[in-house]
Specification:
Blueprint: H1 2-26, E1 29-32, E2 35-42, E3 45-46, E4 49-50, H2 54-72, E5 77-79, E6 85-89, E7 96-106, E8 116-123, H3 129-136, E9 147-148, E10 152-153, E11 158-165
């Protein structure tokens, strides 16, 4: 009986660890020279907090980091807004599957590239684009405008504007 109990406990721990690893994989973001992609699977809201939408924050940070890395490697890129893929399946079920693909395209010169990326959006409401534009003024290179996508929407109600900019610290030699 003791051995059977140990075996069951061991199986339970292995299954739990397997589920944890799978959940981590589902919520990872992978970036290459061609873009960043990832999937968030989990609760939409916890205690009123928009958990699923926070995946947009993580993706924006990953894209910005990758654009900076490529810039420093003399591989100048920008986000191809027209090819962004954004889906939110099973919204309202308690376990949304939020998929994002943010593709890059090459540009000729370093000063045509972008090195920061952001977003503004949310579920079932108009994003506060003017407020975000104001917030990004302090990091945008002087004399350059934000490059803002058309609003992207999913059938389940997620709305996002994606924003790329020339970071004044990273691209200071382009002024």
């Amino acid at each position: 009986m003791y051995l059977i109990s140990l075996f069951c406990i061991s199986c339970y721990k292995q299954k739990k660890k397997s589920i944890e690893i799978q959940t981590q994989k589902e919520n990872e973001i992978e970036c290459t020279e061609n873009g960043c992609s990832g999937t968030y699977t989990g609760a939409e809201f916890i205690n009123g907090n928009d958990i699923a939408h926070q995946f947009s924050n993580k993706m924006s940070q990953a894209v910005g980091n990758k654009l900076k890395e490529l810039y420093h490697d003399n591989k100048y890129k920008k986000v191809d807004f027209s090819s962004i893929k954004m889906t939110t399946k099973a919204m309202g079920s308690g376990k949304v599957i939020y998929y994002l693909f943010i593709p890059f395209s090459s540009v000729e010169s370093k000063c045509d590239g972008y090195t920061s990326f952001d977003h503004v959006g949310g579920w079932n409401h108009t994003p506060a684009l003017n407020r975000r534009k104001k917030e990004l003024e302090s990091v945008t290179m002087e004399g350059h405008n934000l490059d803002i996508s058309e609003i992207k929407k999913t059938p389940e109600g997620l709305q996002e504007y994606w924003i790329q900019l020339k970071n004044k610290k990273t691209q200071s030699d382009c002024e």
